[in-house]
Amino acid sequence: MNKRIHIGGTNQKSLLIDSVNGRRLEPTLTITKLTTEAQRLTWALNTCLASGLRLTLIRRAILGLLAKHLSPVNIEILSHEEELKGRCDTTTIYRMLMMLKDQRIVRQVNVRHRVRHFVLNVPGESFAYLICRSCGLIKHLDSFEGEAAMKHQIAARGYTDLSYELEFHGLCPACQRAIGS
């Protein structure tokens, strides 16, 4: 079931849409934790509208693909997805991601493998990752011990508009097997 998400205001720029069927929604509910793909996509589409961005087919496709992934993905992965394959080149995808990054709809995650990765910048979501030192595989961590305490300490110091990335580096099971054989 798709929930209605309120992104604030009632002017034309904050028009609410349903990511599943594209119908206009009335502002009725604010959700603090967006857990489903549909909720994440609805947040992204409505944030674009609130920022004054047009929802082009390519922009919708990129946001839809990012909504599917909790872990950051790179441009190469996005360009091979069926929704984008043959419809645009990697330069267009890169430019679109950088524009969405400037609007704070997407986050760029920098990892040691020098390949830019991107993830939706969904409010209330954990940005903690487990990264393989060998192959660069990135796995999203739902939460980590002390996350709530850390956020409480930061708020107590008067900081707002918080963003963070926490990376844990190690060897994934596949790389461990490859080294062991």
Question: Could you explain how this protein is built, in words?
Answer:
A hairpin with a 6-residue loop joins β1 (16-17) and β2 (24-25). Helices cover 34% and strands 17% of the residues. α1 packs antiparallel against α2 (57-68). It is built from 6 helices and 8 strands. With 181 residues, the protein is an alpha+beta fold. Mean pLDDT is 80; it is low at 1-15 and 26-32. The relative contact order is 0.12. It starts with 15 loop residues before the first strand and ends with a helix. It folds into 2 domains: 1-121, Winged helix-like DNA-binding domain superfamily/Winged helix DNA-binding domain (Arc Repressor Mutant, subunit A); 126-181, Dna Ligase, domain 1 (2-Layer Sandwich), CATH 3.30.1490.190. The strands form 3 sheets. Strands 3-5-4 form a 3-stranded antiparallel sheet.
How is the topology of this model organized?
Blueprint: E1 16-17, E2 24-25, H1 37-50, H2 57-68, E3 73-74, H3 75-79, H4 90-102, E4 106-110, E5 116-120, E6 128-132, E7 138-141, H5 147-156, E8 166-170, H6 173-180
Parallel strand pairs: 6-8
Antiparallel strand pairs: 1-2, 3-5, 4-5, 6-7
